Amino acid sequence: MPSSLVLPGLHDAAAVEVRELTHLGTRVWTDVGRRTTVIRLIPDLSRDVLATPEGPALIARTVRAVTMSLDRAQAVVGVRLPIAATDIRIDPAWRGWRARRRPAEDRLADAIAEGAVGWREDPLVAAFLSAAATDTRIADAARAAFVSERTLRRRVLAVLGVGPVQARRVLRLHRFHHSLQRLPVSEAASSAGYADQSHAARDLRSLVGMPLRAFAALHVSE
């Protein structure tokens, strides 16, 4: 798992259609068709920068499922930053925000390329994410990063807003969805790191409040 980990969006195709493209370690996404005013956001541990008529806006990190209400006619375009992103900087004076003739997704990509949106990736959080991808114990990840386990846990909490246990649950949730696209449920649960299918179903209800069938039907934004 690269340090610039950024998870693809999961969305209910019956409610919204989202298109995404990868750009400089981020995912620029466009809400290209909304069929409802209430959207459920699946946790992905990332922060997003939105392009709005009033200028750029940085939104909170999504660490648990939330619902938001939007005007059906309101277009939403954003960029999902890497999970380990910190010290996020946005230049509201950048001239490109006012280039209304360019599509908003292009303006966001330009903003990143030209430094109007910037960040650094926290090395300790990146180390934790790499460890989480291989189910490496956090104590071993801390040792490899030459810090104490307590230091690593505190850094993950400071950057992500949740501790390592909750962060691992979100990452496992996304692995589970990926596995569900090619494996039977029981095998997908085992492949993602759950003890069994019941464990996966309980975790799913706790994290996103969804039954397993509805979660499996979520679309990956591409």
Describe this structure in words.
This protein has helices spanning 104-113, 123-133, 138-144, 149-160, 164-180, 185-192, 197-208, 212-216, and strands spanning 10-11, 16-23, 26-34, 38-41, 48-52, 55-59, 66-69, 76-80, 85-90, 117-121, 219-220. The chain has a five-stranded antiparallel β-sheet with strand order 2-3-8-5-6, covered by helices on one side. The chain is α+β, with helices and mostly antiparallel strands and 222 residues long. Helix 5 (164-180) packs antiparallel against helix 6 (185-192) and helix 5 (164-180) packs across helix 7. It has eight helices and eleven strands. A hairpin with a 2-residue loop joins strand 2 and strand 3.
Features:
222 residues; alpha+beta; 5-stranded antiparallel sheet; two-stranded antiparallel ribbon; 8 helices; 11 strands; globular
Q: What topology does this entry show?
A:
Layout: E1 10-11, E2 16-23, E3 26-34, E4 38-41, E5 48-52, E6 55-59, E7 66-69, E8 76-80, E9 85-90, H1 104-113, E10 117-121, H2 123-133, H3 138-144, H4 149-160, H5 164-180, H6 185-192, H7 197-208, H8 212-216, E11 219-220
Antiparallel strand pairs: 1-11, 2-3, 3-8, 4-7, 5-6, 5-8, 9-10
In short:
The chain has helices spanning 104-113, 123-133, 138-144, 149-160, 164-180, 185-192, 197-208, 212-216; strands at residues 10-11, 16-23, 26-34, 38-41, 48-52, 55-59, 66-69, 76-80, 85-90, 117-121, 219-220. With 222 residues, it is an alpha+beta fold.
